[in-house]
Each structure stands twice: as C-alpha cells, then as structure tokens.
Amino acid sequence: MGTARVAIVTSEGGADADADLPLILAALRGAGMSAQAVAWDAAQPQWDGFDLAVIRSTWDYADRLPEFLAWADATAEVTRLRNPAALVRWNSDKRYLLELARHKVPVVPTRFLEPGGSFDTEDFDGPHGVVVKPAVSSGARDTARYEPGRGADAERHARMLLDQGRTAMVQPYLPLVAEGERALVFFGGSFSHAIRKQPLLTEAGLIDNFRVPHPGAVPYEPSEAELRTARAALAAVPAPGELLFARVDLALDEAREPVLMELELIEPNLFLGLNLHGLERLTEAVAAALTVTR
C-alpha cells in the first residue's frame, strides 16, 4: 500500500488566516502521510487522486452555499470526504438547532423567521435583549445583539435579512455569556480539548463583520454537565459515527446550565495551537478515516 494522500481543504482567504492549517499539515506529514492544502474551488483539482479530503478552512462557503454544497456532493463521489457531504449540508443551515431540540438537546431558544412569513414585534423583546443573525452564516457575519427596549432595531435587522431572501433567527441574549463561551473539540467522536473565549458581541446594536474571532481564547477544563450536553448534541447528529471532527459551542443559561449555541461540523477553528495533544488525536482520527470504505 502506498503513502496515503490527504487533501486539507481550504479557501483563498482561509489558507493564509488558518492557524491550524500548517500544524495539521506538519502533523500528518510527520505521521507518514502525503498532506496537501487545496482550495475547494481550485481550478480543475483532481479530487479522485486523494484518499481523503478533510474540510478545514473553507471560510467563504456561506456566501457561496449552493456552489459549495455541489462541490461537496461531487467530491464525495470520488473520494472520502470528511465530514461527509450529507452532514455538511445539514450543518450549513442553523435550523439544525430545531432538530437537536426535538432530540431533547438543551439549545438556546431560537425562533426562525422565513422570508414572506409573519412574526410579532414581541419576538424581538427579552429581559436581557436578543441576538439576531442569519440562519446561514459563518464567523458571526451579519450578527448583532440588542439591549432590552431596542426591539425596533432588532426587528429592522431581521427585516434586512428577510428582504435579502435569507432566513433570520432570533435568540435571547444570555447574560452569563459575559463569563465566556465554551468550545469543546471532538475527534472521531471522542473529546479532545476545550477552550473558553471572551464574548464576541460586546457592543450592542452593532453589525461588525470584521470582529476578531474567538477573542481571548484560553485552554479550559469543561464540567461534566458541559461534556454531557456536548455528547448529547453529537449523539443527535444524523450519522454521528462518521464525524471526523466537531466543535460544540456552549454557554450558560440563567440557571448556570450549559446550552448549545452552535454545533460546528464544517470548518471550525480547532484551537490546536492551544493544545498540541489535539494534533495527535486529529492525526489518529485521520488515519482511522482512511481505513473506512467509502
């Protein structure tokens, strides 16, 4: 058997900004694999020449979703794609939160507003304000929080998204986010490491698509309750056994119980520079994925 060829899939902007990318390439090469960074939309790449394609920093996918999903489907036809194309499609729209909630996973209460649908002004009120964001987005783009009494501003934000033909989502703002968001990273279904980061939406009423992502990220030891919530979310994912990587983003509700904010299965920052043991676990998961029949 020859050397396994692994494509680490990135994008034009992601290749330079992805701090995990050079670490992953070095680790896989150190384990005897032939690893190469390839942009998902590169001109005429030979995806069937790779034994495995691992999606890493395709950070423009939300702006080109139909094209990206078509790429995922086509690539999965000729090589192993991880995470699988069906899960990429499922995770690309945050309406997956509704499915997880139906499986009794504790999630941030979320109302989805569809273009052409109706809603009430009361949807934009909450004791601590609300967060408005598009259902298809990455990196907190077109997202803002609104303080109590600013429901009219929140409604204008939602109407802007709806007028663009996008689904909007409205969530209550969780005040304990001020204590930090948690991100739990899993490889091959097993917990690897976690970080805690400072809140992102620090200025109310502001849509800022140039925020520094993951401010103040530091290593974190999750509680048993946080691990239970993360594992419950992963267990509710369609075909969870096929997950090469996952990041589960949590916050605390007012009862100090962990609730799911997002489940990242496409291109999450994995914070490998903060936990180098994670590189070993990822490398092991990649090696295991290479043995699975497509």
Please report which band the strand proportion falls in: under 5%, 5-15%, 15-25%, 25-35%, 35-45% or over 45%: 15-25%
Biggest sheet, in brief?
5 strands, antiparallel
Per DSSP, the total helix count is 8
Category from helices, strands and their pairing: alpha+beta
Mean pLDDT, all residues: 93
Low-confidence stretches: none
First-to-last CA distance: 17 Å
**SSE ordering:** EHHEEHEHHEEEHEEEEHEEH
Blueprint of the fold:
Layout: E1 5-10, H1 14-17, H2 20-30, E2 34-39, E3 52-55, H3 65-78, E4 80-82, H4 85-91, H5 96-102, E5 111-113, E6 130-134, E7 144-146, H6 151-163, E8 168-172, E9 181-187, E10 190-197, E11 218-219, H7 224-235, E12 245-252, E13 258-264, H8 277-289
Parallel strand pairs: 1-2, 1-3, 3-4
Antiparallel strand pairs: 5-8, 6-7, 6-8, 9-10, 9-12, 10-11, 12-13
Helix pairs in contact: 2-8, 3-4
Describe this structure in words.
This protein is an alpha+beta fold. 28% of the residues lie in helices and 23% in strands. The chain contains eight helices and 13 strands. The strands form three sheets. It has a five-stranded antiparallel sheet with strand order 11-10-9-12-13. α2 crosses α8 (277-289) and α3 packs antiparallel against α4 (85-91). The model has no long low-confidence stretch (mean pLDDT 93).
Offer a quick outline of the entry.
The chain is of the alpha+beta class.
Keywords for this entry:
294 residues; 13 strands
